[in-house]
Each structure stands twice: as structure tokens, then as C-alpha cells.
Design brief:
mainly alpha; MetI-like fold
Amino acid sequence: MAAPSVISPGAVDGVDGMHGAAARPRARSARGGRPGRTARLLRLPFYLLAVTMIIPFYWMVITVFKPFQEITRQPPSFVPANPRLTSFYDPAWTPAQPDPAHTSGLLQRFPQVSLGFWRFMINSLVITTSITVLALLVCSLAGYVIAKHRIPGRRVIFIVIIASMMVPWQTTLIPNYVIMRNLGWLSTYQGYIVPAIAKAFVVFFLVQYLHSIPNELIHAARVDGAGEWRIWWRIVLPLLRPALAAMSIFIVLAEWNNFLWPLIIVQSDGMANIPVALARMNSYYVGAQSQGAIMAGALLASLPTIVFFLIFQRHFTRGIVLSGLKG
């Protein structure tokens, strides 16, 4: 009689190992395949939120390309039947002979202002660019001093900066207005720009980011004879590029859409920015005839911010992630 075969424990372990190795790719492929039903259900609120945010923008776009008769049609149409650019400029409209079937376009409004609506675009571009550049320079310098210098009272200064974020910014409107009036800066670019340069959140964010920069790098530059201004300009600022890009998006969006402060200090139509101009156009031209022009202005106002975010979104994500790292 043949002797019974003996299977060693090692062989059993080898077989089990082969089965386990074969099962692991299947498990990984199952995990790496299509998302399950639970994952799709968890994403549903984000899809609904995206739809609720896209619908108003879509309605704005289609209203711009509708003629006046189609804008006032009931029930409303969700696709323009006869797309036109009369919301921007209607050649058939003349102020001397008003026609109920035609209305002035966006570029035909504000005849009392030189360059018309483009004047407000220029104002917004100048103000937003100036505030963004100056705020990033000043706040990066302040963050560098707080994070990398052992100055007396450094912690107290940083706490005061953080505490200032707890104060509602509306409480500073009247004091800032009185200061701008006493300086004669009402309806001027400096009245827009100077009060908006100091931004506590940007300083706080950059201080946290600067902690990820090794102190040895700063010390090595000092040993090589570099002064503090040169260190800040040639070493710190290039290393802060992702954080500065992230903060620039917040600053640009806030200043481009700023409404309350410009409304308070602007006393002439020629110095208004885009939000103030749109609000005044809504009050000057009341009725359905202004819907197309207002939507055209809102579309032109939203395009620069969308393009700016698409350009800097990679730096924005990297800056937000790296801000929590400390060296």
C-alpha cells in the first residue's frame, strides 16, 4: 500500500500565499474600479450644489443673448431663439427717437461718463491690481518679520493681528470715511486703495507658511552678507509664491466684488467700480428694458475673476495644502 502523502506546513503556507496573492489584485481591481452605489449617493449633494450654482450663471448668459421681446416673454425660454448682441449695443436705438421695441445696450449707458461702461472696468482693474500687489508685499514683509525675527513683543503683535480679525469690518466704515474726508481722498484711487492694504488674514496665513521655510536658509544668507531687504526680496518672496498665489485669489475676488466701501466714498459716476455701476444702472433704468444690459454688465464683471482663478488654481491648491506644514 502506498504511503500517504505528507504535505508540509510550508507548502500549505505557500499555497495560501499564492491564493492570497491572486486575491489581492482582484480586491485592488474591485476597489480601483467604478465607485459603488454608496459613493455615488454621497456625491449627490455636491452635484445638487453645483447645479444650484450653475443655473443662475446660465440664466445670466442666455439673457444677455436674448432680444428685448424674448426677455419679457412668458413663459420664459431656456434657450435663446434668436441670439443677438443687443444687450451690449443696439444700433436701432436712438435717444432722440425712442422705440418700445428697442432699448439701449450696456455700452450705450452712462453717456455722462467718458468711455461709458469701460471706465468702470478700468477703475476696477486699477483698484484691484493695486490693492492685491501692495497688500501681498506689505503682508509678506510683516509675516517675514513676525515669523523669522526675534523682535520684542512679537507674540503680542501677532495676537493683536489675529484679534483684529474678530472685529466686524463694518465698524471701521465711519472712522475710515472720516479719515478719507479729512485727507481729501473721497472719490479718488488712494481712497479706495490705502484702507484696504492691511489684511490681517493674509499676515496670519503667510506666517504659518513661513514656518515651513528652514531658518538655516535665512541664516546662511545672512552669513553670506545679504541684508534683510535682500533676503526678503530674493529668498523669501520666491519661496512664498504658492501662498501668495492663493492669497491673491482671495484678495482679487474680495476687491473686485467690493460694493459697500466704494458706495460710501464715491461721489461721482466717473470713479465708480463695477458693482457700484451695476447698482446705479439698476436704479437709473428701472423696468424689464434694463434686464439685458444689467446681465451683460454682470457677465463682463464675472469673466475676469473666472479667468484669474483658472490661471492660479494650481498655486491656490498647493498654497492651501502647504500652509499647514511647519519646519
